[in-house]
Amino acid sequence: MESETLSTQNDSAQASSLDVQQTTCCIVGSGPAGAFLALLLARKGVPVILLEAHTDFDREFRADSIHPAIMENLERLGLADDVLQLRHTKMLGISFISKDGTFTISDFTQLKTRYPYMLMVPQPRFLAFLTDRAKQDPNFRLVMGARAERLIEENGVVRGVVYRGQDGFHEVRAQLVVGADGRFSRTRQLAGLEPEKLSPPMDILWFYLPHYQDDPDAAGALHLGPGRFAILFDHFESWQVGYAIQPGTYQQVRDAGLVPLRRALAELVPWLANRVDTLRDWNEQISLLSVQTSRLKQWYRPGVLLIGDAAHTMNPVGGFGNNLAIQDAIVAANLLTGPLLAGTLQEKDLAAVQHQRELPTKVLQFFQITVQKQIRKHGLDAEKPFRVPLFFRIVRSIPGMRNRQAALTAFGIRPAKVDP
Length: 420
Ligand SMILES: Cc1cc2nc3c(=O)[nH]c(=O)nc-3n(C[C@H](O)[C@H](O)[C@H](O)COP(=O)(O)OP(=O)(O)OC[C@H]3O[C@@H](n4cnc5c(N)ncnc54)[C@H](O)[C@@H]3O)c2cc1C
Fold this sequence. Notes:
Helices cover about 35% and strands about 25% of the residues. It is an alpha/beta fold.
């Protein structure tokens, strides 16, 4: 196993010059998985240091959805009403919009829950909310602008992290390091864990467009056309737009310039036509993100655990990623609090987290890859206008299956519940 660790023997000179902070659990990455885990552990009395590479939460490529399963858990924590105070929209289902009209594949309104919707809160706001709540607990410490760069390893066991802060390098020593650092996880790479690629990549252009007062309530719907689709997130003053292009055509699309891009977008989402000309500078305004579904065979090594996208990268299809990531955090907190507080954490405790979360992950990834194939076959790779695939028409026509499909998106399988 190839690993790039800071051995205290080999690099003692470098290590001794660093300041050393002690904690019980060091979490790398304050996305949905890391922030939720930190909040739960701190509330249960486990000292936590949460390292976030960026200096704020305000950046692109963020998913805004808070699923019914997460709302129920927030209620168990006494936080649901406070989250509902954040500026939000509610998505009652997941829909495809094409020339054929609107086709809802997941209708949440029939679900038996107090929260029969996907709450859409701009993710920076939600992460700030979680970490603000965690800060009320003296066990919690958040370090922004702290990029994990090395693992500290002793006798084959990970004992901590070296991070580059705004004022130089620092060392955090902990019983457990949790890598919640997302799809390009540095912790995963440092631990020498290699994910298995499960689907071809999706190439998505991201940009913002202005939001006007009488715009439709369009958050979260997939707008599909031949060879492309777009998804919109409502950021109130602006729309965050994800525009998927045929894989491998980025250079071609870019060389063609902004005019065809604006035209294609206006055709796909006609009510955006009156603002597409605000896209004026490719370098400044448009970013490419290539995303691939993948999964680790083993989510841990002695002293280190991977959760969320770091363990199983999700693409945007179906909006499952946040739900899975936060549920990983809940299971990790449920299973690891006892051993962490007692100082008895063993590899088998980390294996138990993977054991509980692996099946839900596999099922949703299978579903996501199936949908992705259908979208490619009937949309992205097709020359003709998008037609709703037979697969979805069958699912929607059978009421039992329709509800199950909505429940799968809303809760996943074996939904995790925060321990009282
Ligand atoms: C384009 C796109 C759209 C998506 N849309 C949706 C959607 O609508 N709904 C949905 O549920 N899911 C969606 N997903 C999936 C979802 O974004 C992920 O599954 C989810 O964000 C995973 O959460 P996470 O906490 O594991 O990782 P992330 O959200 O990626 O958070 C990782 C954090 O770690 C930090 N970090 C990285 N490296 C380091 C380091 N070395 N040191 C310290 N910190 C570090 C990062 O800055 C980041 O804050 C989408 C994914 C993509 C790519």
